[in-house]
From TrEMBL:
Its EC number is 1.5.1.5, 3.5.4.9. This is Bifunctional protein FolD. The keyword Oxidoreductase applies. It comes from Tatumella punctata. NADP(+) binds at G173, R174, S175, I239. Homodimer. The gene is folD. InterPro entries: Aminoacid_DH-like_N_sf, NAD(P)-bd_dom_sf, THF_DH/CycHdrlase, THF_DH/CycHdrlase_cat_dom, THF_DH/CycHdrlase_CS, THF_DH/CycHdrlase_NAD-bd_dom. Gene3D superfamilies: Leucine Dehydrogenase, chain A, domain 1, NAD(P)-binding Rossmann-like Domain.
Amino acid sequence: MSTLLNSQAVAKKIDGKKSAESLLENTRREVDELKKRGVYPCLAVILVGDDAASQIYVRNKLRIAEKTGIKSVELCFDSQLTEAELLSTIEGLNKDLQVHGILVQLPLPKGINEAAIVRAISPLKDVDGFHPQNAGGLLQGQRVITPCTPLGCLLLLQEYGGDLTGKHAVVVGRSNIVGKPMASLLLHAHCSVTTLHSRSQNAAQLARQADILIAAVGQPQMIEASWIKPGALVIDVGINRITLADGSTRLIGDVDYDSVSMVAGAITPVPGGVGPMTIACLMQNTVLAAELQTQQAVLSQPG
Ligand code: GUN
């Protein structure tokens, strides 16, 4: 007797944990090489205030740094810290030759100007790639330190989608951290790029033309199946914690996974998709920062 099968294909699940593990394997080897040359990569992470999500992110970053052989320094301050005190801490880390990467976990408490803090970090130690010098360099296609989440998304797209040349990529969201650098990276990978945002008209209709869709809006399950072209590659950057009726909490993305996975060709889960790649790219950026600073030190030697 034949069994009636659902004719709709279910999207391939993109395994961000596995891809991150193999990226970290490479980074570990690069760290070992640097150590043989007497360079001990070190990442300083600054956490201000008691935001629960930020505490978890920072803990994960420090744990993976240790696993990768990267030394880490954690600097925690309460939310009363002033902008001047934070600037002075960053100044100290900029001057410290033992520290190669500086990451200030965002968001910062009200009263501290994030843009001023990001500008204060030396561009060579800016492992987030948020400094205007790195952001501008990325736009111009220079080899700069690139924001970790968009870089992780690009690596997943290349692994699961191959050559991206000529594909139509739609980025939903225009933040400085994800949306804008993501659009730049996709343009450099020769995609045709559309950015959608809260003021876009006909957003779902535009999104349905995408071979590649990146969701980075911070709105739980906003992207539904009706936004997706059959077979599209879907990358979900959202990490939203929701509380269920029984009081328990759950992490969900910006994409409605269950409905979208009936239309898409491949899709990242939340958790286990982009998140692990972001951290793996942070480790890669720390190694790149250590290399850039070592080259700089050689170039600035007299004679
Ligand atoms: N907060 C949310 N994402 C990030 C990130 O990528 N870097 C920093 N520093 N803070 C964040």
